[in-house]
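User: My collaborator sent over this chain with a note saying "see what the structure looks like." That's all I know about it. Can you take a look?
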Amino acid sequence: MNEPISRRPPLPKKPFNPTSVMLSAWLVILWLIIFDLDLSFESLLYGMNDIVEYFSRYRTPDFSELPRYIKLLQQTLATALWGSALALVVAVMLAPFAARNLSPNPLTYRIAREILNFLRAMPDLLLALIFVAALGLGPLPGALALGVHTAGFLGKFFSESLERVDAGVYEAVAATGASRVQVVMYAGWSSIQREALGYILFIFDRNVRMAAVLGMVGAGGIGLALLDTLRLFNYNESAALIIVLLLAILTIDYLSTWLRGKLN
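Assistant: Without extra context I'll predict from the sequence alone. Here is the result:
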């Protein structure tokens, strides 16, 4: 016999639909941005013709000096590569001391953490200006700036990965009589090898982009050549340099994504 309708449990409440709330919040944030930055759509529309006219100057790239562009690109890639290598060396040395479960004492842990925080807080553009003033123009200041800045990120990534390794792995290696260095090497780094390689690829991918930007402040490479052509209003050559740089960045990005997918 069917149960009377009055005795049946009530239907569950209709789930909350956050769409209207999210849309309202997005509109409020958009209005705050426009109000705080004093954006004028009238000025933007008025300047559209100037924007279109400016970009039209890049419509005929000049590849007559392509071998020189490739050489400049190689310099930029070398800056990113050696900057990443420097960051890797510094991060590998500091990361075990910045990992709570591997640092010998709280003071060492705090010092290592603050060093990594300082390295991350120093913008690579500012570091490049400092190194250019100290060492002169060229790729060396760019490599040093990238290495110092990104060492803070790699060190943080590595230390947090080392902290996530199961304590039993460290205890098992330590029980064999291994020293602290051996515990870090055979229990720590071997456990996060795949994750660490992914971080290194990410940092290198990022450094390639930044190496071109740092070239504009005197750190050599394709960025410095691009700045010179812009100063001379040589837009055809600027367009060619931009295309060469974009193709290189896209290629490296696809290769990095493919390698990270293989690692995962």
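A starting point for your reply to your collaborator: The mean pLDDT is 86.
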